[in-house]
Write a structure and sequence with these properties.
Elements: E1 2-4, E2 9-11, H1 17-20, H2 24-33, E3 36-39, E4 44-47, H3 50-58, E5 62-63, H4 72-75, H5 85-92, H6 102-113, H7 116-120, H8 123-135, E6 143-144, H9 145-150, H10 152-162, H11 169-180, H12 189-215, H13 221-233, H14 237-269, H15 273-276, H16 280-293, E7 300-304, E8 308-310, E9 313-315, E10 320-323, H17 325-328, H18 363-380, E11 385-386, E12 391-392, E13 401-403, E14 405-407
Parallel strand pairs: 2-3, 4-10
Antiparallel strand pairs: 1-2, 3-4, 5-7, 6-14, 7-10, 8-9, 11-14, 12-13
Helix pairs in contact: 5-12, 5-14, 6-13, 8-18, 10-14, 11-12, 11-14, 12-14, 14-16, 14-18, 16-18
């Protein structure tokens, strides 16, 4: 890590194991000396302070797309690559990548299907699945808790919620992992081509599922979205496909790592599960502190929509800025003693789910899964221990583990 605080310049390879295995040491140094800095490897300014991250996620001077206010020629942007056309077609209709008024319409339609009572109704299913998975844990030898517990819960639950067969989970995971690789630092042409192929296969699967559901509506989110389209709310089939893929990807990718990171934190800090999950209030505090202490998503980028000034930095239209969600919760100005895991901390400030119009639509589901799955795990497995030092994935933007080997 090379930092020039006076010039506010940072050189730090996101693929350096010393960084991605524990980015919080770097964050601490940046919070102290340069919480707004130009990250040379990414080629844009990044903001790390909790207050800045929260504010800029809501600031309408910035957005997730730029071509609604400019042209490629004006900004000097290259034409879309032919070899990622199918991936880009899904992104083009994703509410995560759109701004109002398109985003407003898409978000409103999905909100209708993602109502709180529908999410809460999944509590018994999450608990039953957690118990069933634990019943299958090995008793004598070490096993990977990510594979045995943290992954199947969110994958199967979001599939069930959408109305996708749960036995399709392995294919959904494969497509999702290959698509999400597009957001990694330093991706290659091979990664891009593979993500494009995965996007095409995923889209074909969703279209076939939608066609089947049109003929046989069910009590699931996909049927609700189809009905909204047919009722004249102008959700096109392309938008329906992109929305389903977004929910399936986002509905498990982050939650898998939120669960894994939380278990790792609890085991490494020696926190007492009986106190952590003593009641609903304690469980809620513990989950929020886990999300603050070691969140799964660390970087969220936005475009500058018009020439502007921010924190003494001149920003030009079409540039990107990075909001370091993973650093926000470790800001000492927002959370005293930020590097101490404190499950008794009242209302810890963090940005694990973002903020503003792109606040994670699945946050209630993710919180519910954590609040149900963690207490059951530690109640059923009181002797749970790490079997080896957890290994972090080489994927800085999604901070999570390669595997979490434990014994029970």
């Amino acid at each position: 890590m090379k930092l020039d605080p006076a010039a506010r310049r940072l050189s730090l390879d996101p693929r350096d194991p010393a960084f991605y295995e524990d980015p919080y040491a770097a964050y601490a140094r940046l919070h102290a000396r340069a919480p707004v800095v130009f990250w040379e490897e990414y080629g844009h300014w990044v903001f790390l302070a909790q207050g800045d991250v929260d504010r800029l996620l809501r600031d309408r001077r910035f957005g997730r797309e730029i071509l609604h206010v400019s042209t490629r020629a004006e900004l000097g942007l290259p034409e879309p690559a032919a070899h990622t056309a199918r991936f880009d077609a899904i992104d083009a209709h994703s509410m995560l990548e759109r701004e109002p008024p398109v985003h407003t319409r898409l978000r409103t339609l999905v909100n209708r299907a993602f109502v709180s009572r529908r999410v809460e109704s999944l509590r018994p299913a999450i608990a039953a699945l957690a118990h069933a998975l634990i019943d299958g844990f090995p008793r004598a030898e070490p096993f990977d808790l990510l594979e045995a517990y943290a992954t199947p819960i969110p994958v199967r639950i979001i599939a069930r919620m959408l109305g996708v067969p749960e036995d399709e989970a392995p294919r959904l995971l494969d497509w999702s992992h290959r698509m999400v690789a597009m957001y990694a630092f330093g991706r290659t042409r091979a990664v891009e081509e593979d993500a494009d192929a995965a996007a095409a296969a995923f889209a074909d699967f969703v279209r076939a599922t939608v066609a089947e559901r049109r003929g046989r509506p069910a009590d699931d989110l996909l049927s609700v979205l189809i009905a909204a389209e047919e009722a004249g709310d102008r959700l096109t089939e392309d938008e329906l496909v992109s929305t389903a893929i977004l929910l399936l990807n986002a509905g498990h990718e982050a939650t898998v790592h939120a669960l894994g990171n939380a278990v790792r934190t609890i085991l490494e800090t020696g926190a007492d599960p009986a106190a952590l999950f003593a009641d609903a209030a304690a469980t809620e505090r513990t989950v929020e502190e886990c999300l603050r202490f070691d969140p799964p998503l660390h970087m969220f980028t936005r475009y500058v929509l018009a020439d502007t000034q921010e924190s003494g930095v001149a920003l030009r239209k079409g540039e990107r800025i990075g909001l370091v969600l993973g650093a926000a919760g470790r800001d000492p100005a927002a959370n005293p003693e930020p590097d101490r895991f404190d499950p008794a901390r009242e209302k810890p400030l963090h940005a694990a789910f973002g903020a503003g119009i792109h606040f994670c639509i699945g946050a209630p589901l993710a919180r519910l899964e954590l609040q149900v799955a963690l207490p059951i795990l530690f109640e059923r497995c009181p002797a749970l221990r790490l079997a080896e030092r957890p290994r972090v994935r080489d994927a800085y933007h999604f901070h999570g583990l390669e595997r979490l080997m434990v014994t029970r």
